[in-house]
Amino acid sequence: MATVTYDAASRIYPGSTKPAVDALNLDIEDGEFLVLVGPSGCGKSTSLRMLAGLEDVDRGAILIDGKDVSNLPPKARDIAMVFQNYALYPHMTVFDNMAFALKLRKTPKSEIERRVKEAAALLNLQEYLDRKPKALSGGQRQRVAMGRAIVREPQVFLMDEPLSNLDAKLRVQTRSQIAALQARLGTTTVYVTHDQTEALTMGHRVAVLKDGLLQQVDTPRNMYDKPANVFVAGFIGSPAMNIKTVKLGDNGAVLGGLAVPLTREAVAKAGEGADGKVTVGFRPEDVQLVGEGDGGLSMTVDLVEELGSDAYVYGRADLDGAEEQFVIRTDGRHTPNMGDTVYLKPQSTPHIFNAATGERIDG
Amino acid sequence: MEVVTTVQKAAPPATRGGAPTEGRRRGSASRALWIGAFLAPAILLVIVLLAVPFLTTAYRSFFDDNGLSQKWVGLANYAALVSDPDFGRSLLNTVMWVAGTLLLPVLLGLVLAVLTNSVRWGSVARTAVVIPYALSGSATALLWQFLLQSDGAINQTLTAVGLGSWQQEWLLHWPLNTIVMIIATTWQATGASMILFLIGLQTIPNEIVEAAKLDGASGLRMFWSVVIPQLRPMTVVVVGMAIVNSLKTFDIVWLLTQGGPGTASETLALTMYRETFTLNRYGYGAAVSVVLTIVVVAASWLYLRRQARSR
């Protein structure tokens, strides 16, 4: 077990001037489960592969347990990785797949046997040890890939979208199994996903990347409650936060007919370089439907998505002459109808961002 | 037209799995007829082009036949083969060709494919290796004759650089002549096996190689434990083709030495040709070709069966 440190680590692919990962600074604690999340091409997989030694570190350094591993080959880093397509050796049995790394390290046979059997028991793979990967289901293959990592007893686990090739039900099930397994083994884990639900449910901390730049790293709760900028606010949460750039008045933001009062400091910060605009965000569940004349923002309902206990109401409202889309969550048993006009009022103080920089403003 | 309607009528009971009825029996008979009709052209070709010539040849091998008169001699031709030193040499040469072809073009093709697979100048190197494959066997033979004959390019070069004592009569002594001809074939044939191995290499998923790197494999260990096993389907094809092609070796030997001096560098294919068409010993030549056929079929069958079983 070990800590992992990205020290201004950059990766620039040959033939490109823009770094795929740009001066990434990240401290991962011993035993921590850190999730790297972001849209396609944000550099999350590249960051993981840099840690694995499968990509060069062009600038900066990567440290495992305080030791600079930037120039070490993968096998010298004492890490194990689970790939999206599992990358099992097709010509080896499940047992041999799991034992391969140990055999290469000349681990005694009895020890190999013990560790593989232990991992197999942990992952319910005992009866498949003699099978080849092609005779296994997707979920079983995924578990073999996990097993291959576990038997190594590495310092760090790396997982590159390990659930993406599973069907939805199995994904949810395996998600909790991996989290439980990590908690039990206590091995430092870096996990890459594009799925924010996975990120929020599995990680002790979540790091959001965009265009190779780290946007925020925090606990899932803080990430959700206090997104550091507009990108994180829009990326984390489903359906996404309602984010609108509107006029900034002397006392706060003006959201159509709805005034959002802000402190004097917040108004000052929001005004910096923003040309009299401010970005306001509120989550679908942080909105109340109020009666006409209660000072709410009027919205015409376009679509109602019923999810049983809840419903999402999609609609459009007029903001300074432009039509804007909104989504709100309501009680599933009391939903408006399509075409109705409803009045929205944020329940708590909305998230406020500087309209020019996109940075969060507190207060 | 009538047959078609019968098939349509007969189909439902067959799919429903109902009790055997008159209609179903009639249906399965006409079904067999249809299957037979579709297979007939292929079967006919096999019979006309393979079975008939083979059986005719096998039949002729039981005769003493000089083209004018035939006399039944039973297995005498085969008995003569066994005690014929020329045939023994020819068989030995053929074995050398098989071993040499497996050792050189196949192994070299594999090594070159691996070495050039992901290096910067790989494509240039590959092109250089593949070009000779585009030449015909006779062009290759002519080129190598120019190199190998006693006053040829190799000996002249050796003299020019002061290594005159290394000069050889490359094509005049056994087993040197067979060995240099195997090398000439290697020069021509390596490209083909290299290309096939390259295709095989490119089908190996990158993640598997990366996983092996993380597991601690590199260099030869990676090659043996990860790359080679996954090249297996391609290896089966390349080795199978190499075995069959080497057993049939004819053109390059015929053009470079005509099987000579004497019969020293003959392969089974050349012996067959010489006995049949030069010496007009049709029965004896037929016996040689039967032996060659049996060797080729047996080798391919054994090899492919082994491969099929172990997969």
From TrEMBL, chain A:
Superkingdom as given in the UniProt entry: Bacteria
Alphabetized PANTHER family for the sequence: MALTODEXTRIN IMPORT ATP-BINDING PROTEIN MSMX (PTHR43875), OSMOPROTECTIVE COMPOUNDS UPTAKE ATP-BINDING PROTEIN GGTA (PTHR43875:SF1)
Cellular component terms per the entry's GO annotation: ATP-binding cassette (ABC) transporter complex, substrate-binding subunit-containing
Keyword Protein biosynthesis tagged: no
Cross-referenced CDD domains: ABC_MalK_N
One GO MF term attached to the UniProt entry: ATP binding
Keywords annotated in UniProt: ATP-binding, Nucleotide-binding, Transport
Domain ABC transporter positions: 4-236
GO biological process: carbohydrate transport
UniProt name for this protein: ABC transporter ATP-binding protein
Record has rRNA-binding as a keyword: no
Protein's organism: Actinocatenispora rupis
UniProtKB/TrEMBL annotation, chain B:
Low complexity compositional bias, start-end: 10-21
UniProt keywords, alphabetically: Cell membrane, Membrane, Transmembrane, Transmembrane helix, Transport
Transmembrane in keyword set: yes
Subcellular location: Cell membrane
GO CC annotation terms, alphabetical: plasma membrane
GO BP field: transmembrane transport
Ranges annotated as spanning the membrane: 32-55, 95-115, 127-147, 179-201, 222-244, 282-304
Ranges for region Disordered: 1-25
Ranges for domain ABC transmembrane type-1: 91-303
Record membrane topology: Multi-pass membrane protein
Pfam families in UniProt: BPD_transp_1
Family: Belongs to the binding-protein-dependent transport system permease family.
Record protein name field: Permease
Species: Actinocatenispora rupis
